[in-house]
Amino acid sequence: MHTEIRTSLNERLADTARRGNRRDVTTAAVLMALAVLYPLLGTTFQLQLLTSGLITGMVAMSFSLLAGFGGMVSLAQMAFYGMAAYVVGIGGHDMGLPALLTVPLAVLSAAVLAGLFGLIAVRSSGIYFLIMTLALLQMFFGVAMQWQSVTGGYNGVAGIQAPEVAGFSLGDAAPLYLVTVIVAAASYLGLRWLLRTPFGLTLQGIRDRPERMRALGFRVQLHRWLLMVLSGVIAGLAGVLGVYYHGVVSPDVAGLTASLIVVLSALVGGVSSLVGGLIGGILVTVLISVVSYLMQQWFGTSHYWTVVGLIFVVVVKNFPNGIFGVDARTRRVLERVLTRWTGAGSGDGARAPAGNGTSPQTR
Amino acid sequence: MPSYFQFVLTLMNGLTYGALLFAIASGFTLVFGLMRVLNLSHGAIYLLGAYVGYTVSRTVTDWVTAWLPALGGVGWVAGVCGAGLAGALIALVLQRLIRGVDGELPQTLLTLGLAITIGDLCLWIWGGLPLTLEPPEAVSQAVRIAGIPYPGYRVFVIAFALFIGVALYLLLFRSQLGRIIRAGVDNREMVAATGVDIDRLFLKVFMLGGALTGVSGAIGGSYLAFQPGTDFEILTIALFVVVIGGLGSLLGSAVGAVIVGLIDSFGRAYFSELSMFLLSGTVILVLAFRTQGLFGRSVERG
Amino acid sequence: MSALLSIDDLHVYYASAHVLQGVSFEHDGGVLCLLGRNGMGKTTLARSIMGLVPVSDGEVRVRGDAVTNHAPHRVAARGVGYVPQGRDIYPSLTVDEHLRMLAGRTEGEWTMPRVYELFPRLEERRTVHAGHLSGGEQQMLAIARALMTNPSLMIMDEPSEGLAPVIVEPLIEKLRTLAASGMAILLIEQNLRMATAVADELLIMVSGRLEARIPPRELEADSALQQQLLGVTMND
Fold it and tell me: Is the pLDDT confidence value at A23 over 70?
């Protein structure tokens, strides 16, 4: 019955979004070229910092994907990361399976875990969604900690060897950096493409007007669930890269501190932007490195988390939607099109402000 | 009969842990019920309470025993009070920080930052070794329960939780402040529109919750060793308790606390590696059938 | 002497929607009724007076003192009582607790016995949880609660909403009693019967603007005007 409306709605949305894409693509190509050429100039330390930042950035991107495009603020992303990391660690290191097998298995496991978590979590929204995902993250942490015979308990799995790709070991800084750049860029472009498809635009419609989309016959929970699985895949890819970068995986991957870094990165980059997550990841990784260095220099202490926690408080207090919330323009356009196609503005407007145009409060 | 012995002991341990969890979770759930803010620094406040209680208790005990050895227990009491004070103080800071932030999600995220800062400060000040407070002898005499000797302090913990439960019940259901708090849980906008300063109400509830959590830290830290990482552990367990019992419900957190305490205790005793699976499984099972927890009201009011 | 309530060029936005577009009026005693269709900004006006939604521009004054964007409790403390749309009683509190929680907070004639005297039905049901009351009883309770703040002005947002005509009649009686006792009322309504029965004057609101201020008789007599302004007639 609603098929016609839906089709035309989707076309309108896709058309609106397609415009102004070309300039962004050029910018991305230039950035990509710079990123790929960077190993010729950078030191090993810089490359490692960038690699680590991009890995964090991918998890932040998966967070922003859910928060900015699904209205779901999830603290469970590091569980998906951890799942993939543990599968690589246990499969590759403990069981001696080849990377060709463990890596796809790891990403798949992360997706499955996200799917399971999603079954529980997508039924709630807003603050309740956050609580559910936090509880799920803590379950993952608890199981990783206690199930010693498999996970290695508190110490986790150490000494994980990175595989070779085209004759280069991913254990070396430059090859791992290049692979990370490629995977991060591919993830970003893939997500970006997906969000421009009718599927992605439906998702954004659901984020902004869940009731209305439901009334139009869209399967809201299914879409939210699919988005959750997708975010699990991205976080899982990051987990694979992360475990090769660190060579270790322990329950700490699912600790509060790790989640704080992810959320901070996403906020710094702006939750309504995917590329913001990647940029935020790099900025925050560099920031933490600098804070840690300065604390050592000035106070002779390694307790830089005290300061990073406070920085986080300041960021949340002053920029709850991210420092570089770049996508506000796109959202306004979408909102207008949606409103036009789904009927006039909402009632008295007094009781239900229909989202104030910024993601974290969207419920 | 060691198996009977083990069973009763495990049961008692579970009830004791459940009692402590109730004291911890009640402040957590009260703050959530009124403000829709999940205080992610709740575990950190517990841990800080334990550390402050430890230091105050040691200092005062040393000082008092030098003059009046018979009054050594006073040090511990001072430690518990100090812990409550520390908890209330952190809650005060937190409420001030949250006040200017718009929306429950950013407010909740903000508490995450404070949790990390407090946890790291504790590590900085007190180091990484596990510590415990020493409770006074008056409450640590062994008692016999079902023919089995049991540490008296744990019975004291149960009594403490019962006291907290009754006090909170009286506060919520028999006092003027309680009526206003419950009205605020139902509809805080309306409470404000009848002339109640909602920020001051939040501050009171927040500080009450903080004090309760700090005190719980000192009480719990007198028989469960605490160390860096305890903050996350306590936050986890407290969250499980309120999720099972229903967010914002005092009765729910009492029932949830006993359930979680028993599962944890029996899980650790009989399936040591899998107690977390059991606990997680319970949480998932409850949520699968009742998203709002056992005693929660309909959830989607955010 | 300044008017009890004066609104001066009020503007309120929701996201990008301009909900109130320069509303100005004064209210100085009696029953003033704000009429308009759904979505015209009536509830927003009430909420912005109470400080429940932010005002972008313009001023709200109570007895000459600006209360624009003040916290709701400060507006209430100036003597403005609020009976919200949808009643918003507290389902988990008993009838008695609704009133008791406000007892003694303000000075004035409205004490619990006095409120129960006006609403004997509520006294009969004083131990019942408000969630179990009928719609009409909930409305009485919402009014009783506002009275406990001893207001000099009551803002009532669609008290007749969702109530059967047989229940609206006694409600009209109560409002008349209140008005006769000297209480100033700003009544927001869509129900023409209710509005014309109690109001001294009518304000007509269309799309976030005030279109007219007329005596009730004028609207009662003119069904074309009813149709034009409100899309309904008395016979609906």
Answer: no
Query: What span, in angstroms and rounded, lies between the C-alpha atoms of A108 and A105?
Result: 5
For residue B173, the number of C-alpha atoms closer than 13 Å in the C-beta half-sphere is 10
Q: Which two tokens stand for residue C18?
A: 């301009």
Domain ranges of chain A: 3-255
Structure tokens at A135: 């509880």
Asked whether A150 and A235 are in contact (CB, 8 A), the reply is no
Q: Does domain A3-255 have CATH number 1.10.3470?
A: yes
CB A240, CB A88: distance < 8 Å: yes
* Structural domain boundaries enclosing B96: 2-289
Q: Is A351 on the interface with C (CB under 8 A)?
A: yes
Q: Is residue B253 in some structural domain? A: yes
Residue B232 has its nearest CB partner, among A135, A255, A317, at A255
CA distance B103 to B17: 34
Tell me if C84 and B176 make a contact (CB, 8 A cut-off): no
Amino acid identity, residue B7? F
Q: Do B116 and A320 touch (CB under 8 A)?
A: no
Q: Do A256 and B106 touch (CB under 8 A)?
A: no
Does residue B298 sit within a domain?
no
The total number of structural domains in chain B stands at 1
Residue B294 maps to a domain: no
Residue in A146, A306, A313 nearest the CB of B276:
A146
Interface predicted TM-score (ipTM): 0.90
* C-beta atoms of B302 and A127 within 8 A: yes
CA separation, residue A216 to residues A343, A344, B11 (Å):
11, 14, 54
Surface of A (319-338) touching B: CB under 8 A: 320
d(CA A120, CA C218): 59
Contacts of B275 in chain A (CB under 8 A): 146
Residue B274 within a domain: yes
Q: Is the CB of A353 less than 8 angstroms away from the CB of C47? A: no
* Contact in structure between A270 and A326 (CB atoms under 8 Å): yes
Q: Cα(B14)–Cα(B267) distance, rounded to whole angstroms?
A: 10
Q: B128: domain CATH number?
A: 1.10.3470
Q: Are A220 and A213 in contact (CB under 8 A)?
A: yes
Q: How far is C103 from C106, CA to CA, in rounded Å?
A: 7
Give the three-state DSSP class for C186: strand
Q: What is the CA radius of gyration of chain C?
A: 17
Total-model pTM: 0.86
Please report the domains of chain C, with CATH numbers, ordered by start residue.
5-230 (3.40.50.300)
CA dihedral B263, B265, B268, B269 (to 10 degrees): -120
Instruction: Work out the average pLDDT over C142-164.
Output: 94
Q: Interface partners of A (3+ CB pairs, < 8 Å)?
A: B, C
| CA angle (A16 as vertex; A14, A22 as ends), nearest 5 | 90
Average pLDDT over residues C118-141: 94
Percent of chain C with pLDDT over 90: 66
Set of chain A residues whose Cβ sits within 8 Å of the Cβ of C16 = 332, 335, 357
DSSP, collapsed to helix, strand or coil, labels residue C204 as strand
User: Which segment of A151-160, B174-183, B207-216 scores lowest on mean pLDDT?
Assistant: A151-160
Q: How far does Cα B143 stand from its chain's mean position?
A: 25
Beta pairing partners, C83:
C156
CB B33 within 8 A of CB B248: yes
Say how far residue A196 (Cα) sits from the centre of its chain.
18
Asked if A348 and C43 come within 8 Å (Cβ–Cβ), the reply is yes
Supply the angle between the helices A198-208 and A220-246 in degrees, to the nearest 10.
110
Return the H-helix or E-strand segment holding C114: helix C112-118
A315: tokens are 């960021």
* Length, in residues, of chain C: 236
B177 three-class SS: helix
Least confident of B94-108, B163-177, B218-232, B247-261: B94-108
